[in-house]
Amino acid sequence: MRGILLFIGMILMVSLVQGQVDSNSELHKTVVELDKRLFDAYNKCDMETQALLMDEDLEFYHDSAGLATSKSGVLQSIKENICGKVTRTLVEGSIEVHEIPGFGAVQIGMHSFSNNQEPNAESIPSRFITIWKNNGPNWTITRVISLHK
């Protein structure tokens, strides 16, 4: 828990110091496209694309499931528990992008998840934070905080 609070504090500090980039900037457009690519793959169970977008040093903090530090474990969990069962929808206009100079970007936004087995179930939007690392021509996710409560 202490690590999560420290991590969130660091993100908030970066946000205050840097401020979010303009929504017309190349960085913002890049992160929005990366988000779309990731969750198109997530919704279609395209495990290969998801694997390409996740860093080997992945840390995934989930307010219900806890901390996952294994890229292969996260991918296996998605394959077993998400594929064909859940659809993610981004809340339009919710993405904020904050540059991390020399590293990449912080993405903050809202999304909702629909249970495909219960199409009439309520889907409540929740906040997420993603840390994207710029690896030259490629970008990967190094940290995720997924908040649903």
Automatic annotation (TrEMBL):
Annotated InterPro entries: DUF4440, NTF2-like_dom_sf
SUPFAM superfamilies reported for this sequence: NTF2-like (SSF54427)
Record-annotated DUF4440 domain positions: 32-141
Taxonomy, superkingdom: Bacteria
Pfam families: DUF4440
Name of the protein in its database record: Nuclear transport factor 2 family protein
Organism from which the protein derives: Croceivirga thetidis
